[in-house]
């Protein structure tokens, strides 16, 4: 599942685990909402699909963020365990979570930051269904459809 994180005061956005096949959907949504994509974040190397992070970086100029020990190419920002950065007033903290892959990481967003919206993208058969509910913390993964 891909998550769109938005700082509503600055209109800055981050996509977490975007999928290449749905890149046009993301870009259309960002434009329609007047959002500036600041970060494309991959929580780990994905063997089951192609990430959109590199292509989003090329098209929008956003930062492509991954854990520092990744073998992935084109990453512009490498983070280590405990690293933090802000997107507007929203702090992101990264934690090592090796196991699934060596470069797996947890992206932690604090609940205390108001003006933060988190939108899960649900894409089924190439149709985008924005989930209306804004959620903190992220929703659990839905059962396979």
Description:
With 145 residues, this protein is mainly β. Helix content is 13%, strand content 37%. The chain has a single domain (2-130), classed as 4-Layer Sandwich (Metallo-beta-lactamase, Chain A), CATH 3.60.15. A 7-stranded mixed sheet has the order 5-4-3-2-1-9-10. Strands 6-7-8 form a 3-stranded antiparallel sheet, with no helix packed on it. The longest helix has 11 residues, at 23-33.
What is shown here, in short?
This protein is mainly β and 145 residues long. Helices cover 13% and strands 37% of the residues. The strands form two sheets. It has a seven-stranded mixed β-sheet. A three-stranded antiparallel β-sheet has the order 6-7-8, with no helix packed on it.
- Give the SSE string: EEHEHEEEEEEE
In the CATH scheme, what's the topology name?
Answer: Metallo-beta-lactamase, Chain A
How many helical stretches?
A: 2
State the end-to-end CA separation: 13 Å
How many domains? The number is 1
Mean pLDDT: 78
Number of strands: 10
CATH superfamily: Ribonuclease Z/Hydroxyacylglutathione hydrolase-like
| Estimated structural class | mainly beta
């Amino acid at each position: 599942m891909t998550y769109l994180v938005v700082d509503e005061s600055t209109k800055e956005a981050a996509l977490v685990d975007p999928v290449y096949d749905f890149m046009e959907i993301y870009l259309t949504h960002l434009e329609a909402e007047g959002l500036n994509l600041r970060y494309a974040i991959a929580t780990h190397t994905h063997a089951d699909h192609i990430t959109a992070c590199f292509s989003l970086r090329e098209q929008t100029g956003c930062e492509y963020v991954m854990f520092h020990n990744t073998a992935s190419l084109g990453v512009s920002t490498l983070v280590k365990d405990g690293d933090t950065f802000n997107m507007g007033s929203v702090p992101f903290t990264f934690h090592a979570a090796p196991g699934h892959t060596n470069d797996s990481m947890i992206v932690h967003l604090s609940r205390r930051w108001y003006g933060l919206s988190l939108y899960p993208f649900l894409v089924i058969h190439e149709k985008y269904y924005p989930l209306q509910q804004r959620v903190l913390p992220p929703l659990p993964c839905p059962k396979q459809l």
